[in-house]
Design a protein that fits this description.
The complex is a heterodimer of chains A (274) and B (284). With 274 residues, chain A is mainly α. Chain A has helices at 16-19, 22-35, 42-59, 63-68, 74-87, 104-130, 133-144, 154-184, 194-200, 202-225, 244-266, and strands spanning 93-97, 100-103. The two termini of chain A are 38 Å apart. In chain B, 40% of the residues lie in helices and 23% in strands. Chain B has helices spanning 46-53, 78-84, 101-111, 116-129, 146-158, 176-193, 204-210, 228-232, 235-240, 247-257, 269-283, and strands at 2-12, 20-31, 35-40, 61-66, 69-70, 85-88, 164-168, 196-201, 213-218, 221-226. Chain B has a six-stranded mixed β-sheet with strand order 6-7-8-3-9-10, with helices on both faces. In chain B, α4 (116-129) crosses α5 (146-158). Chain B is globular, with a radius of gyration of 20 Å. Classes of the chains: A mainly alpha (274), B alpha/beta (284). The A-B interface holds A 3, 11-13, 62, 64-65, 177-178, 180-188, 202-203, 206-207, 210-211 and B 13, 15-17, 51, 54, 56, 79, 82-83, 86-87, 89, 92, 94-97, 107-108, 111-112, 142, 156-157, 160. The complex binds adenosine-5'-diphosphate (ADP) and magnesium ion. Residues 12-13, 20, 22, 40, 42-48 of chain B line the site of adenosine-5'-diphosphate.
């Protein structure tokens, strides 16, 4: 169902990851994503995999729940894999389907790309699973604070991001409700050709937009009624402060980075063509 | 001919942190032509329950029979079920989307495959029934007032001529007059067409006035399933479940405690008035 979309959502649990400072998680996620592109060997992938599994275990988010989040990007993944598989012409030819041949380089690239994409998505969703939208905003705001000097409205951008994140589940719920209401009136979203299906979306999209605007308007009113005037001179009730565990987390991240780059480059592990 | 639920369970988002056992072992039967009231505190599972009646939600466990056919059998005609069981959601005005009221009300009949004339004829009937004035038929549904929108949306379901009409808190957020109008029209429809009506409501008064039978939901379970009189006799327990019996129930119990031998089983204001008059005349 539509509620199964879990990307960008918070998953409540009690774990060390949930308690970490959002800045640590933002920076670490970014570093992890970059680290995935620093090596091209199976040994490197092993390190990255072990690290990711460790983080998943530490987050206490059920593995099935994380995998479910991958569903919406399966199409993208397939396209990437197919393109890499068939369009690489160098390397030995492994086998030929019709007029397209798969080479060793093609296969290797396809597998590496797929793994990278999956890790990228899991890595970033782990951050949102363990960080509430509020913390995320605070973290982003703190990290981007220096940009204030060049007149980037950092607070406003962060606020917009957190509102957008917060609205994802609300709008999904709303979509679910509207879909059901139209189905109760005999609407059919599953059959018909592409044009008929696109037309069948109108009874969902119009009420959805109306409701999104209504909600945005209500929210603006509610914020104004509480004297919200943007970031100027605004103080925080719970200012971010690094604790021991946050420093430890930075330490772990540094060890991982060194390990992954070192192992990825210099450990000559080779399995078949990888 | 009826709706029958056997040991129905429903769990939202099973096996996650958001897991919610919304319905527990529900066994119910709703015969044709009955006016059933469903009541319960917020979050007791009323909306979840009624979405099972037309197959919008599939039970995690258990069976649902419509006219003795198990709707979860493979190959069951869901479309037909949705034609026969009309469901008006809470805040149905949020589902309006067409350029004018008439076309919006026609959406249901059109999906049933009726001709344009037939659709419009049914839409007109339905709009008349909910008491929306003719001058609004061609205006945009977004220009109407809240109460008018609600009527238009209810007409959208009525125009499908369902055999069973399910209404989820149709009066939430309406003024007292709008509330009475809508409920009166539903009751009128029930008398006229012997349509089965399932009315979800917060208000004991409303339910007491119209329902033949009351289903009380509490924490996802059926707490009572009986005639109004019998249910309100448990007014103490109802209070513990976060509900209240109609005010007349309290007055009648108070009177009895004060030594006036009235029948405490009356459920509506007019019945109570008659009963008090009768007893007073006897005393005199
Ligand atoms: N789409 C949903 N996803 C998860 N939980 C839900 C959903 N809808 C309702 N619930 C939960 O199920 C329970 C029953 O809800 P509902 O049937 O809407 O109750 P009612 O209509 O009596 O207020 C509530 O605890 C609610 O939080
Ligand atoms: Mg409800």
């Amino acid at each position: 169902m539509i509620r199964d979309i879990t990307i960008g959502q918070y998953y409540p649990a009690k774990s060390i990851l949930h308690r970490l400072d959002p800045r640590v998680k933002l920076v670490s996620t970014l570093l992890y994503l970059i680290s995935l592109f620093l090596f091209r060997s199976i040994a490197g992938y092993l390190v990255a995999t072990v690290f990711l599994i460790g983080i998943i275990r530490a987050s206490r988010v059920p593995f099935g729940y994380i995998v479910k989040g991958l569903k919406p990007v399966i199409m993208l993944l397939m396209i990437t894999v197919v393109f890499n598989l068939f369009l690489k012409k160098d390397g030995e030819i492994l086998f030929t389907v019709w007029k397209l041949s798969v080479t060793t380089v093609g296969l290797r690239n396809a597998v590496y790309m797929a793994v990278r994409l999956v890790y990228l998505i899991i890595g970033s969703s782990l951050m949102t699973f363990t960080t509430t939208p509020n913390e995320l905003t605070d973290g982003i705001e703190a990290l981007l604070h220096p940009l204030n000097k060049i007149h980037v409205p950092v607070h406003e951008v962060a606020m917009m991001m957190s509102i957008a994140l917060r609205f994802i589940p609300i709008l999904l719920e709303e979509t679910d409700k509207i879909m059901k209401a139209q189905q109760a009136r005999g609407a059919d979203f599953e059959s018909g050709n592409i044009i008929q299906r696109a037309k069948a979306m109108i009874p969902i999209l119009v009420p959805l937009f109306v409701s999104a605007f209504r909600r945005a308007y209500d929210l603006a009113m509610a914020m104004e009624a509480r004297c919200y005037r943007g970031g100027e001179g605004r103080t925080k009730m719970k200012p971010l402060r690094y604790k021991g565990r946050d420093r430890a987390a930075y330490g772990v991240m540094a060890v991982y980075l060194v390990a992954v780059v070192f192992v990825g480059r210099y450990v000559p592990l080779k399995v078949w063509i990888f | 001919m009826s709706i029958r639920l056997e040991h129905l369970n429903y769990i939202y988002s099973p096996k996650t942190a958001y897991e919610k056992h919304a319905l527990r072992d529900i066994c119910l039967e709703i015969p044709d032509g009955e006016f059933v009231g469903v009541i319960g505190h917020t979050g007791s599972g009323k909306s979840t329950l009624i979405q099972h009646f037309n197959g919008l939600i599939k039970a995690t466990d258990g069976k649902l029979f419509y006219n003795e056919e198990n709707i979860y059998e493979p190959g069951y005609n869901m479309k037909n079920l949705r034609n026969e069981v009309g469901l008006v959601f809470q805040y149905p005005e949020h589902q309006l989307f067409e350029v004018d009221v008439m076309s919006d009300v026609c959406f249901g009949p059109k999906n049933q495959g009726l001709s344009l004339e037939e659709c419009e004829a049914r839409a007109r009937d339905a709009l008349k029934l909910v008491g929306l004035k003719e001058k609004y038929y061609r205006s945009s549904p977004f220009e109407l007032s809240g109460g008018q929108k609600r009527r238009a949306a209810i007409a959208g379901v009525l125009a499908m001529r369902p055999k069973v009409l399910v209404l989820d808190e149709p009066t939430a957020g309406l003024d007292p007059k709008g509330r009475d109008d809508i409920l009166e029209q539903v009751a009128f429809l029930h008398r006229q067409t012997s349509m089965t009506v399932i009315l979800v409501s917060h208000s004991m008064e409303d339910i007491a006035r119209y329902a033949d039978r009351i289903i009380v939901m509490n924490h996802g379970e059926v707490m009572y399933n009986d005639a109004p009189k019998a249910v309100f006799a448990h007014y103490m327990e109802l209070e513990q479940a976060g509900l209240a019996a109609p005010q007349v129930t309290y007055i009648m119990h108070d009177l009895k405690e004060q030594g006036i031998p009235v029948d405490t089983g009356v459920t509506t204001v007019s019945e109570a008035a008659d009963e008090i008059m009768k007893v007073l005349e006897k005393i005199r």
